[in-house]
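Quick one, tokens below:
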């Protein structure tokens, strides 16, 4: 079939300029199919390629995702190996070129061996580990389509409200969990499957998304008219056994698939698109009848019972924990999460549900990192003894760690925790200065020893604030065009606090600060504040203690230590959490002068600190960080995250600020009616909702209204996109909560 010169030019633009496929010998003709895109066949010297150009018609009706998302999904399917090989992409014209698949189209409902060949292709797709650009919750999607249909006053099927009540019950029973979503085609019927020499190949990825694989099976069975036996064969072959639970879930998803198709044809009815030969009314009737047939099936109630997820042991374990560790031992989430394994940035719970860990900074180079695990295991099987014996592994690690610091920081005490290190740092500061006074932030946490509890302001402690402590409100210059006045006022408050300690006879021994001011809510002080604060402490005879438990080891991106964000020279630097990737390892880095002075007056020893096993863990972390260039990765991803977060929350009155540095980031929530009022309830809701969506995060700040996200540094761009994509979905759902 001939095409216009304009179409011919558009097809050729898909290929690289100068490609032989753009030359005069390449012939272009139209192909049939594709309501959302036009298909073309390009012939050249006996070779063929298919070009698809999306028209944006169904995208405008909110039926399909944007063309660039579909292009990305098609590329992803090509990488996985179940789709046609992509040969060229032109995002400007929403076009893509693919290999021409020479084969036949099977009858998925009729061919005896169709399932035998199709299921392996589905397994390849579903277990690939790849991610499409979007998640699909079919219930949310359908509600969006139905809302649009009602808004446009389209004719809706009789009995729709009653059916919606039934679907709400099905939604509750199926209990979709985004953490279980896998890449799915979501539009499998005869026309989208081609059999060639390599097996079953899937085409047309317009509706592809990450979703529950049982929805894929339910759609396949529903759209292709599978009878009960054929549906059972599909579920059995996919799962490798006859399982009433899995079959019941597929049967319920058949209803969801029919419902989804009904909504699609409702929104499309009466609209003559580029391919106006679509029988919208007939498709709607067929899909709606499928919904009713399944709802009225005699075994529907039995399927509802069989499809529920089996009960877990959480309740019993929680009771046992309360009777041993105590009911006051803190736990995350309304329903506590029992995690049993992890790998990289992913953790798995007792029910097999997988979560992206966007919270834990202890597994710095990933959960169960094989390099760290092997180093610890090898050393543990050889020797683990305290530091009153010589061991080269301990010294090697101390040298490697100190090499990351600037002079004069050239000595290290190895400890077991950040609490031990901060407590030791205060001992050194007090003995060196002969003073006791300490400056801390008005909302901070630096450890759980008795001395540190007395200066804790960010958690409840029975000790209360000690008389030798003065608190500082850390100024926040976020969104402030001219922060000079704020800087002057804040440094004046530092002067007042120092004077107060001197007048009370305590003097100034130290200031303790987290360079990220994370517990405070990731506030951004005005330029010059940290420099002015530390200079005043030094002038008063005190020491500067940088608590790098949160900000250290590259977390802020592009730099090993968070204090390097400022022009300051700390006297004491505390390290912790990520240092051993989960092995209890911490350190206090200081100067030779301070260490020697302390050693002259104290016999300091720590039985378990700095053992060869601990040193092996720490050295392995440094090794992985260097080999995988994690400092640079944190910088690049941090920049990307900041940009994406600003895009996601643009115009959202509930979000006052995007906060953080590098791969420690968050969002501040406020009352949209009064941005001066923190909205802790909304923040808490998002944390719980993200858990439901398969992502672990938390919240911080004096009001608990700042999301806290700090994934392991080995997180990839794709995994960041999963986190941000689900966060965007959660924020959208927050409006309806």
């Amino acid at each position: 079939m001939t095409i216009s010169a304009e179409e011919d030019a558009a097809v050729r633009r898909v290929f690289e300029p100068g490609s032989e496929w753009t030359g005069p010998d390449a012939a272009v003709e139209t192909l049939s199919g594709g309501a959302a895109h036009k298909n073309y066949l390009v012939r050249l010297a006996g070779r063929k390629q298919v070009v698809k150009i999306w028209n944006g018609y169904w995208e405008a009706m909110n039926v399909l995702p944007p063309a660039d998302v579909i292009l990305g999904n098609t590329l992803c399917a090509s990488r996985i190996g179940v789709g046609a090989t992509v040969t060229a992409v032109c995002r400007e014209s929403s076009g893509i070129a693919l290999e021409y698949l020479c084969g036949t189209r099977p009858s998925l409902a009729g061919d005896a061996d169709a399932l035998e060949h199709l299921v392996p292709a589905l397994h390849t797709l579903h277990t690939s580990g790849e991610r499409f650009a979007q998640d699909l919750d079919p219930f949310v999607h359908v509600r969006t389509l139905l809302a649009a249909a009602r808004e446009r006053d389209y004719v809706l099927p009789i009995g729709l409200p009653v059916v919606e009540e039934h679907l709400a019950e099905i939604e509750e029973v199926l209990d979709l969990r985004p953490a279980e979503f896998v890449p799915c085609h979501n539009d499998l019927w005869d026309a989208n499957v081609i059999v060639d020499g390599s097996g079953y190949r899937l085409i047309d990825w317009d509706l592809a998304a990450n979703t529950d694989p049982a929805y894929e099976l339910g759609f396949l069975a529903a759209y292709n008219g599978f009878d009960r036996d054929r549906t059972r064969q599909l579920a059995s072959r996919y799962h490798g056994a006859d399982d009433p639970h899995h079959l019941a879930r597929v049967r319920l998803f058949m209803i969801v698939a029919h419902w989804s198709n009904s909504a699609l044809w409702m929104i499309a009815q009466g609209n003559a698109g580029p391919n106006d030969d679509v029988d919208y009314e007939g498709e709607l009737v067929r899909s709606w009848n499928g919904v009713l047939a399944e709802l009225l099936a005699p075994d529907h109630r039995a399927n509802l019972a069989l499809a529920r997820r089996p009960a877990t042991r959480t309740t019993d374990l929680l009771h046992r924990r309360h009777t041993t560790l105590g009911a006051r031992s803190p736990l995350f989430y309304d329903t506590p999460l029992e995690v049993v394994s992890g790998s990289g940035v992913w953790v798995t719970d007792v029910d097999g549900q997988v979560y992206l860990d966007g919270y834990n900074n202890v597994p710095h180079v990933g959960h169960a990192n094989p390099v760290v695990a092997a180093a610890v295991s090898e050393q543990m099987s050889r020797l683990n003894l305290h530091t009153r014996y010589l061991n080269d592994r301990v010294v090697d690690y101390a040298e490697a760690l100190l090499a990351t610091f600037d002079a004069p920081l050239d000595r290290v005490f190895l400890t077991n925790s950040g609490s031990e290190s901060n407590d030791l740092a205060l001992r050194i500061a007090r003995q060196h200065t002969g003073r006791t006074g300490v400056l801390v932030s008005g909302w901070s946490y630096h450890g759980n020893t008795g001395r540190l509890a007395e200066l804790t302001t960010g958690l409840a402690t029975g000790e209360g604030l000690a008389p030798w402590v003065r608190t500082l409100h850390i100024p926040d210059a976020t969104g402030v065009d001219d922060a000079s006045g704020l800087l002057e006022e804040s440094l004046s408050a530092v002067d007042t606090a120092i004077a107060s300690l001197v007048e009370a006879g305590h003097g100034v021994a130290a200031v303790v600060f987290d360079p990220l001011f994370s517990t405070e809510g990731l506030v951004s002080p005005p330029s010059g504040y940290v420099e002015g604060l530390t200079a005043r402490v030094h002038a008063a005879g005190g020491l500067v203690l940088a608590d790098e438990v949160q900000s250290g080891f590259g977390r802020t991106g592009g730099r090993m230590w968070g204090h390097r964000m400022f022009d300051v020279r700390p006297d004491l630097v505390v390290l912790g959490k990520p240092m051993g990737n989960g092995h209890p390892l911490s350190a206090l880095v200081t100067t030779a002068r301070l260490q020697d002075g302390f050693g002259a007056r104290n016999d300091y020893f720590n039985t378990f600190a700095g053992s060869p096993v601990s040193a092996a863990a720490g050295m392995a972390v440094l090794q992985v960080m260097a080999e995988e260039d994690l400092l640079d990765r944190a910088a690049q991803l941090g920049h990307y995250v900041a940009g994406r977060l600003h895009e996601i929350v643009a115009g959202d009155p509930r979000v006052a600020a995007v906060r953080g540095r590098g791969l420690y980031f968050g969002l501040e929530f406020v009352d949209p009616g009064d941005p001066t009022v923190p909205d802790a309830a909304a923040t808490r809701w998002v944390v719980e909702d993200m858990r439901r969506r398969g992502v672990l995060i938390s919240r911080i700040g004096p009001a608990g209204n700042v999301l806290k996200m700090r994934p392991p540094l080995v997180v990839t761009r794709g995994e960041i996109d999963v986190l941000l994509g689900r966060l965007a979905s959660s924020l959208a759902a927050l409006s309806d909560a």
